[in-house]
Amino acid sequence: MTQAPLSNVPNTAGRFGPFGGVYVPETLVAALNQLETEYTRAKADPAFQLDLNNLLGTFVGRPTALFAARALTDHARSLSKSGEAAHIWLKREDLCHSGAHKINNTLGQALLTKRMGKPRIIAETGAGQHGVATATAAAHLGLSCEVYMGSEDARRQRLNVVRMELLGAKVITVDSGSKTLKDATNEAMRDWMASVDNTHYCLGSVVGPHPFPMIVRDLQTIIGVEAKHQCLGAFGALPNAVVACVGGGSNAAGIFYPFIDDHAVALIGVEAGGAGPLLGQHAAPLCCGEPGVLHGSLSYVLQDPAGQTADVHSCSAGLDYPGVGPEHAFWKDTGRVSYTSVTDDEALDAFTLISQREGIIPALESAHAIAHAVHLAATMRAGQHLLVNLSGRGDKDVDEAHRLIEARKP
Ligand SMILES: *Cc1c(COP(=O)(O)O)cnc(C)c1O
């Protein structure tokens, strides 16, 4: 019997193997069904694809560049025992309008919102990047926009609160629980239960109940589709390996998915190893978690022995989430993608390295991917190629990175 290709998921029940599904209150089931129906129609509608592609071209600035990172490659060579290393290539999602890959998703979902005849869009945000990307798409497409944000996050990420407000969005701060992303997500879901008739909930990663993990993956797949084409143009082959950081998992899913059935291409996801391996010190559910249900789907979750969702830590706010998308859980268990983690310290070293050697200040999230990529390239051969998703730029992180770098000085 031939096996179905791994790309042929989710099934009609929204399952990626055993993972995914729809674990939500009854009131949301109709809205999720409507969203799936509308999305299936939109995907097959050339007018929708044309609108989206026009926006991706002229508003976001796609295609983003594929960049030969010669200094990082030299550095990998200097670390290598053999003196050889793979060529490191960066997919420059940091060049996207609003600073990261997130806009690929929010524009698609905002267009869907308009198709469904809904005038209002809501979102959850942690560091504020998804909130800013949603507010940007909403402003451009004339939707009213409200963003839920934990009050602790709003305090730490003041600049993004101001950006959202300048874009015409309303930021609703959440004071419950740990006053961070998990609590903001709960509030956004509660809002949606009461407002589904006129409101779309724009989820920010490949998480949540079906059909969100599929929709967000599809919208981010532009990253991998472009990169595959660009690799063939630049070095006439597929890369030997692809590396991306994993928070909820959307930038990684976007760059991995077009390579999933190319089994010669190694795929590696990098989670936030934070301050150390103890529960509460990191945000690495695939490396350290157990299967569980969080925010409407079954996937790997960091939980304490009583089954309560654990606290998480990472220097990068975009990776600071106790769950991960169900398709990654599927890829982990099938062995198609391997997952590892990088600590705060290693990410900070990579942040400095790429800033000073390539002249690119990366997002702290993306610095996790760079840190692993440099070490991996040093174990590879000279004629090989390693593709890294540089998911976003570091403007948002300059204060925090500066503080952490100063704090490390003796
Ligand atoms: C939000 C964010 C991430 C993490 O989210 P994913 O869904 O895992 O991609 C990574 N990089 C950047 C720059 C981000 O803004």
From the alpha-carbon coordinates, what is the Rg to the nearest angstrom?
20 Å
Written as H for each helix and E for each strand, in order along the chain, the element string is EEHHEHEHEHEHHEHEHHEHEHEEHEHHEH
List cofactors, ions and other ligands: pyridoxal-5'-phosphate
Number of DSSP E strands: 14
Query: Which structural class is indicated by helix and strand composition?
Result: alpha/beta
Strand order of the largest sheet: 3-4-14-9-10-13
State the major sheet: 6 strands, mixed
Bin the helical content. 40-55%
Write a short abstract of this structure.
The protein has helices at 26-43, 46-60, 70-79, 102-115, 129-141, 151-156, 158-166, 181-195, 212-220, 222-235, 250-256, 285-288, 326-334, 344-358, 364-377, 398-408; strands spanning 15-16, 19-20, 66-68, 87-92, 120-125, 144-150, 170-174, 199-201, 241-245, 266-274, 290-294, 297-301, 337-343, 385-390. It has 410 residues and is α/β, with parallel strands linked by helices. Residues 100, 102, 129, 205, 245-252, 318-319, 363, 365-366, 391-392 line the site of pyridoxal-5'-phosphate.
Please give the structural blueprint.
Elements (H helix, E strand, L loop, with lengths): L14 E2 L2 E2 L5 H18 L2 H15 L5 E3 L1 H10 L7 E6 L9 H14 L4 E6 L3 H13 L2 E7 H6 L1 H9 L3 E5 L6 H15 L3 E3 L10 H9 L1 H14 L5 E5 L4 H7 L9 E9 L10 H4 L1 E5 L2 E5 L24 H9 L2 E7 H15 L5 H14 L7 E6 L7 H11 L2
Parallel strand pairs: 4-14, 5-6, 5-8, 6-7, 9-10, 9-14, 10-13
Antiparallel strand pairs: 1-2, 3-4, 11-12
Helix pairs in contact: 2-4, 3-15, 4-5, 4-9, 5-7, 9-11, 10-11, 14-15
The chain binds pyridoxal-5'-phosphate.
Pyridoxal-5'-phosphate binds next to helix 11 and helix 15.
